[in-house]
What we know:
The structure is a single chain. Helix content is about 15%, strand content about 35%. The chain is of the alpha+beta class. It has two domains: about 5-245, Jelly Rolls (Sandwich), CATH 2.60.120.10; about 250-330, Jelly Rolls, CATH 2.60.120. It has a seven-stranded antiparallel sheet with strand order 1-2-5-12-7-10-14. Strands 15-16-23-18-21 form a five-stranded antiparallel sheet, with no helix packed on it. Strand 3 (about 55) and strand 4 (about 55-60) form a beta hairpin. The protein is globular and about 65 Å long. The protein starts with 5 loop residues before the first helix and ends in a 5-residue tail after the last strand. The mean pLDDT is about 95.
Amino acid sequence: MEYKNYYFCRKMFYPLKFQPILKEKIWGGKKIKTILHKTSVSDNIGESWELSGLQNNVSIVSEGRFKEVTLNKLISEYKELLLGKSIYNKFGNRFPLLIKFIDASDDLSVQVHPDDKTARKLYGQNGKNELWYILESEKDAELIVGLKKTITLESFKEAIKNHTLTDKLNSEKVKRGDVFYIPSGRIHAIKKGVMLTEIQQPSDITYRIYDWDRKGLDGNYRELHIDEACKVADLKAKTYYKSEYEHAENEFVTCEANQNFTVNILNFNKEIRKNYSETDSFIVFICTKGAFRLLYSEKEVRVIFGETVLLPAVLKNITLIPETESELLEVYIEVKN
């Protein structure tokens, strides 16, 4: 799509912030409200959806000339100016990511997600590959990621039936800054005392395998999806599940790059200039520590810990100026030809 007044369109765009979509959960806690400063009357907020185009959960711009406009309306109106040409050609009017903060004051269910092929066949939508970046963890807090040892499908079913599945699950003690990539099919659970950022494909399809024999907010046991999980679960163990990445100051470091998203980490205490002329994608910045000013087109926006910003693809030159030692996650998509 070509815009005759491309310069005007570029000048009217700015880094976009959105109203958080807060989700009350039986395992949720207070940290999204007290630490990330999201406004809520509930003390059981488990998730803050920062950037979403999913039906009935569409993000709404919180400030500026596009205030109160939905993400999906912006995409349908401005297309590749917002998303990038290659991204729009591939995904159309569908925003191709879902960004969340998650606070677990209790254990989440043991679960697994289907891959793209299965999800498209059964539900007409994509599957769910995701990445976790640990923001905070209490003493001895853990995640469940994968299996201790490779098992057969028969052994998997038997363990579920006999309530011995947890004996076969791999637990990982975690600390701030740890990264875990969770591809579709990998069994996982966030456990009590962990707060993290989740970057994922835009899907809310979850197969619960085990839910700690507890009841939901309605007083009933939550539904399990054993048959579905058995069809998609990866029962092969890995020797190592945590993603390794270099720790450096004042430069972007890649912690994950795949067809669904690239995630880079920037720890910085000085001005960083960035040119995205070679990046045909929108950029998402998630502030995971400190605060910084984002300069663009001779203007600026302040971003603080716990905020997420969508940089439209048409904005190519920016400067990041930390107010103190700060950290952000940079997220975008590379479409391979």
